[in-house]
Amino acid sequence: MTVETPTRFSPLSDRRDDFAQLPAGLTVRELPFLTQLTLRTEPGGPAAASVEACLGITLPGPVRAESSGDVEALWMGPDEWLLVAPEGGRHDLLTRLRSAIGDEDFATVTDVSAQRTTLDLSGHLVRTVLTQGCAIDLDPRATPAGSCPTTLLGQAPVTLVVREDGASAVRLLVRASFASYVADWLLDACTEYRGGTG
């Protein structure tokens, strides 16, 4: 018996042409099918130590991200992390983590890959554009590379991962239901920079 794999559609697959019209100082591309797993465990506890050993990563403290290989751990709360990895390795990563956690009373890992899409932003206009609708101070002294605050962009909740100092490269993790709104917001925020040198 053959089991058909369901067709997956990214929330912003129809916006690529729109993103191509952005000014030269801002590049936006969607990374739609990243593996995203929510880890809940006691910080510093046995399950956390097992996960760290399994991944070769230190689970980060408040509003920070750490990476090892192709897995990135984002702090989401006092006992919660979002583990982000490339598409395709979800089953293997989930299996490894559940094996590492074992039977610990307070430790769970949940696949939440379908909840969000990711927008990868780069260019010298990133910080300028985002500050129009984000209350987070994106000055590198306040949010250096490795910061991952959860905030609002316009009216949409996002997790903003700063990948380079000066916020010239960030990723926005946004729930699929807000993805179109965020795309529209970014396009609108760039209106004054179109047609110029950016």
UniProtKB/TrEMBL annotation:
<dbReference type="Pfam" id="PF04268">
    <property type="entry name" value="SoxG"/>
</dbReference>
<dbReference type="InterPro" id="IPR027266">
    <property type="entry name" value="TrmE/GcvT-like"/>
</dbReference>
<protein>
    <submittedName>
        <fullName>Sarcosine oxidase subunit gamma</fullName>
    </submittedName>
</protein>
<dbReference type="InterPro" id="IPR007375">
    <property type="entry name" value="SoxG"/>
</dbReference>
